[in-house]
Every structure is written in structure tokens, then in C-alpha cells.
Amino acid sequence: MIDPWSTVSLDYEKYIEQFGIKLFKEMVGELEDPHWLMRRGIIFGHRDFGRIVKAIREKKDFAVVTGMMPSGKMHIGHKMVVDQLVWYDKHGADIHIPIADLESYSARGIDFDQSRQLAIEEYITNYIALGLDFKKDNVNVYLQSKNIVVEDLAYLLAKRVNFNEMKAIYGFNGSTNIAHMYAPLIQVADILHPQLEKYGGPKPTVVPVGPDQDPHIRLTRDIADRFKNQFNFVAPSSTYHRFITGLTGGKMSSSQPKTAIFLSDSPEEAEKKVKTAKTGGRESLQEQKELGGVPEQCVIYEMLLYHLMDSDEKLTEIYTNCKNGTLMCGECKNITAELMKKFFEDFSKKREKAKKLAENILDGESTW
Length: 368
Hints:
By secondary structure, the protein is α/β, with parallel strands linked by helices.
């Protein structure tokens, strides 16, 4: 059992076997221009992504849903989701972005005013700066607490779910507050509501998530099947991406500042953090030359792999030179730190411009 609200480390291979997730590499060749996260195996698994490939090929309607839970600052690992949204936008998706203020309240104790401000100042601001255009008609963002369609749908769907099922999926017990138990059903409605007739449904829908969020996907797929006759829902597809490693090893987490490069960091802060990050180097220079490094266990290499190096050829060169011992960790760190600094110099400027735009995105979405 996986708790979607706790920081976890997962064995991806075992997870694929346990829950029947298919390898995404089988889908890469089906796409004309797969995102680098797809090409490089960072998106490692999927459920029914073939439906999305078909919709893209045939230029038919499909939707992508990914939520933001405003509970803290965004770090560079969160950039992966926005990069995927930008890619889906280019391929004609209807994009739905619920701001999970109900979940944030029930699971984290964050009040609604604070959630709204965090959503504007952190999430929406960074999404805009990373290239997502909220002014487009196909991009829909909303506060869960203000979306009556979603809340009504969640209540209707809850009729076919019982406590034993929620306990088996999430580990809820007698001390779990009822709001927390109900929050996953709001997420189910977030995912399924683009398939309602008023939004042009039913249609294929994909949810890009980390594997820790798969309990929500499994519950949604089961409920979609139970209500198929009533709403003609198509079971939502999903993709699963690896977590970027934190600066000290383990998962990068907003709640553990020493592990993260935050999107609000200055270029100098980001550069400094890269230079202090854990590497996959050997204990001595001589050993590094003789045995080579271990890029698979290197935070620095992951920064290049996930975010900083567009060229697959250059990335392969760095990987090979690390493995054969001709590229030392210090040199690789300096290269990566400089790339990170350049990224943040550009991004910081975009972020400043995005702040003013973000303030108007939720106009009309008043707080409690």
C-alpha cells in the first residue's frame, strides 16, 4: 500500500510488477516527437496510453488532467509535470488543472486563503514562467472548493464507494478525518469531469503522475467502470515519471529544504546548491579514473538528464566519459552548475513577468 501524502522511495521495477503498469518505452516509437522525458526513460510506465497516441495521431479530442496541491514551494522536480503539459498543449489537448485546496485543507491543514495565495504566487506563476499559456481556451484552472460541477460529481460517485475500499487503498482508519477520506473522491471527479457531455466528453483522458499518486488512478479507473453505463466514461490513461533525487540523496521534497532547488531560488543559490549536491563519484580520484563513476546514482547527472541538456548526444557523451573515468566529478559539477545558473537567470526574468499575470488567473474565484 502506498500513501500519496507521504514522501516515499519506490523500487520502480517491483512497482510495475505489483500493479500491472506497462513499460512506457514500448510507446516511444509510436510517437512522432516524444518528449525527452519519454525518450530518456524518466517517464517509465503507463496505463492505456495507446488511447492518447491514437487521439494525437488522428487529431481527435483528448484531455490531460494534473492537479497542484498548494502546500509549499515548487522545486525543480515539479518542473517535469509542467514540461509535459506544454508538450500536450502542442498536441491539441484540453488541459485541466485543479488546484487541490480541499485536499490541502484536509490532509495538510492549510486554510483556503493560504491555499489560494500559494497557488497564485508559486504554482500558477511558475507554470506561466515555464511556458504554459493560461489565456488559451483549452487551458482550464480552478479551485476545487469553487467548482460546483466537480463537487456534485464527487458526491454522486461516492455512492458507489465504501469505507472498506478506501481503507484497503489508502490505509484510512478510525482516526482519519472524514474530509481527508472524501478528498480522493474529489480527485476522482477532477479526473473524470472533462468527460462529461458539457465539456465535450466522453473522450480519452491522461493523468501524468509520480507513482505515489497511482492509488488515485486505480480508484478512478474502477469508479469510471462502475459508472460507464450512466456517463459512458472512458477509463483514464496515466503515465508515471521517476522522482528526481534530492541534493542529499533520497527524494527531493519541498518539506525538506536541504534536498531541493526551489524554482524561486536566485541563480546564485541554484548554482551553489548544485555544487554541494551528492555525486556518483568514487572515494578517490585514482579510483574514479580506474573504475569510472556511477552516473545512475548521481544527482548531478540527473539534473542534466531531467532538465538541463537538450542534446541526447551530448548527454550520452557525458554518461560515457563518466563511466570510463575520463570525466571527473568536479568538472561535471562545474558544467552542470553553470547550466543551472543560466537556466535560472532566464527563468527568474520570466518568473517576474509571470507574477502579474498570475494574479488575474483566478479572478472571480473568491475565497471562503
